[in-house]
Amino acid sequence: MTKVSMTVNGKAVSGEVEGRTLLSSFLREGLGMTGTHVGCDTSQCGACVVHVDGKPVKSCTVFAADVAGASVKTIEGMANADGSLNVLQQAFQDHHGLQCGFCTPGMVMSSAALLAENPKPSEAEVRHYLDGNICRCTGYHNIVKAVMAASGQDVSALAAE
Question: Model pTM?
Fold first, then answer.
C-alpha cells in the first residue's frame, strides 16, 4: 500500500492505495465521490473524465499514485460556491443536454476543458472535442447546443434533430 495525497476540488485529501488503484476507483471508493462514473473500464466512453492540473483525463486510465501531488477537479467541484449550477451545468439543464445522466459528468468535464481552451467553439469543434465521450441517449445535438449556449453563443439557429 502506498499513501497518496492530492488536492481534490480544492481540498487536500490522502489515502492508502495499492499501486494498481485507478484514479476513478480512488475517487469513487476511497473518497466517496461517485459523480465520476465508470462505464467501460477501457477509456472508450469518457464517463470518467476529470481534470488533473487543469487538463481533461479519463480517470479509468491513470493510477491514483501517478497523480499524487496533483490538483484534481471532479464533477462535484464544478458547481458555484453557493452550490448552484455553474453556467455549463445550467446550460445542460436548460437545453436538455442529458437524458439518463450517466454520461453527463464526463460530458460536462470535457466540455469545460473545451471552453477553457476555446471560449467560442463552433458546432463542428464541439462535436470533434466530444468525440471521446459516448452518449447512448441524446443523439448529442442538445449536448452540443448546451456547450455552445454556455459559451454565450446564440443557439436558436441550430437545427433540431
Answer: 0.94
